[in-house]
C-alpha cells in the first residue's frame, strides 16, 4: 500500500470511529460514510451527504443516484475505481434534511484532509450544496458543465444526480456535462 492510500485509510478510520461527539447527525447515523476510491484519482466527486442506503452500507452513492452517477462516469470515460467519491458531510442528516451550517463545519476538515492527500486535477461538486462549499458565489444553474478556477483549484460543477432521477431534461444536461468533463481530462 502506498503512503497516500495509507493516509486516506487513516482519515476513513478517524471518520468511522469518531463518535461520540455531541452532534446528533453523527450519533444517530448507522455508519459514517468516509468516501472511497483511488488515492491517485485525477477527479474527486463531492456529493452533499449520505442517504439511507449509504447510511446502511457505509459506502457513498450506492442508491439510485449512485447508479446514475456510474452511468455519468462511464459517459466521461471514467470508472468508479479511477475516481474518489465522497460527500461534504459524512453522516446522513436525520430524515434526509439539509445539513446545518454547524454540522458542515464539523465535517469539513475531513473533506479538506482527503483533498490534501488526493490532490486531484479536478473537483466535481455535485449539486448546489456541494458547490456552496467551494464557490459560494456561484449558482449551479450557471456554473455547471464547465471548468472554474477557484482558490487555486479547478472545479467542474455538475447537477446532483438525484435531482435528475425524475427530470429528463436535467438528465440530458448531466450527460452532456459528463461528456464535457471527459473531453477536458
Ligand atoms: N447523495 C449524496 O449527496 N451522497 C451520497 O453519497 C448519496 C446520495
How is this structure best described in words?
This protein has one domain (3-184): 3-Layer(aba) Sandwich (Uracil-DNA Glycosylase, subunit E), CATH 3.40.470. The protein contains 8 helices and 6 strands; from the N terminus they run H-H-E-E-H-H-E-H-E-H-H-E-E-H. It has helices at residues 3-16, 24-27, 52-57, 64-75, 101-118, 127-134, 140-143, 168-184, and strands at residues 36-37, 43-47, 84-87, 122-125, 148-150, 153-155. Strands 1-3-2-4 form a 4-stranded mixed sheet. The chain has a two-stranded antiparallel sheet with strand order 5-6. It starts with a helix and ends with a helix. The relative contact order is 0.17. The model has no long low-confidence stretch (mean pLDDT 96). Uracil binds next to loops.
A few lines on this structure:
The protein is of the alpha/beta class.
CATH topology: Uracil-DNA Glycosylase, subunit E
Alpha carbon gyration radius? 15 Å
Domains (count)? 1
Just name the CATH architecture: 3-Layer(aba) Sandwich
Overall CATH class: Alpha Beta
Which structural class fits the helix and strand makeup? alpha/beta
**Spatial shape:** globular
Beta-strand residue fraction? 5-15%
User: Which whole number gives the mean pLDDT?
Assistant: 96
Order of helices and strands: HHEEHHEHEHHEEH
Distance between the termini: 26 Å
Major sheet strand order: 1-3-2-4
**Low confidence ranges:** none
Biggest sheet details = 4 strands, mixed
| The named CATH superfamily | Uracil-DNA glycosylase-like domain
Secondary structure: helix percent: 40-55%
Number of strands: 6
Number of helices: 8
Bound molecules: uracil
Amino acid at each position: 500500500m502506498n503512503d497516500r492510500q495509507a493516509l486516506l485509510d487513516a482519515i476513513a478510520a478517524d471518520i468511522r470511529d469518531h463518535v461520540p461527539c455531541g452532534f446528533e447527525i453523527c450519533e444517530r447515523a448507522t455508519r459514517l460514510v468516509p468516501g472511497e476510491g483511488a488515492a491517485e484519482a485525477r477527479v474527486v466527486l463531492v456529493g452533499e451527504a449520505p442517504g439511507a442506503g449509504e447510511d446502511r452500507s457505509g459506502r457513498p452513492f450506492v442508491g439510485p443516484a449512485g447508479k446514475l452517477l456510474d452511468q455519468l462516469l462511464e459517459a466521461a470515460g471514467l470508472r468508479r475505481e479511477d475516481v474518489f467519491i465522497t460527500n461534504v458531510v459524512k453522516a446522513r442528516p436525520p430524515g434526509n434534511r439539509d445539513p446545518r451550517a454547524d454540522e458542515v463545519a464539523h465535517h469539513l476538515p475531513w473533506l479538506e484532509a482527503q483533498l490534501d492527500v488526493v490532490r486531484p486535477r479536478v473537483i466535481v461538486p455535485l449539486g448546489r450544496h456541494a458547490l456552496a462549499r467551494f464557490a459560494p458565489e456561484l449558482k449551479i444553474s450557471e456554473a455547471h458543465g464547465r471548468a472554474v478556477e477557484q482558490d487555486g483549484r479547478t472545479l467542474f460543477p455538475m447537477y446532483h444526480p438525484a435531482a435528475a432521477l425524475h427530470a429528463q431534461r436535467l438528465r440530458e444536461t448531466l450527460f452532456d456535462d459528463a461528456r464535457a468533463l471527459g473531453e477536458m481530462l
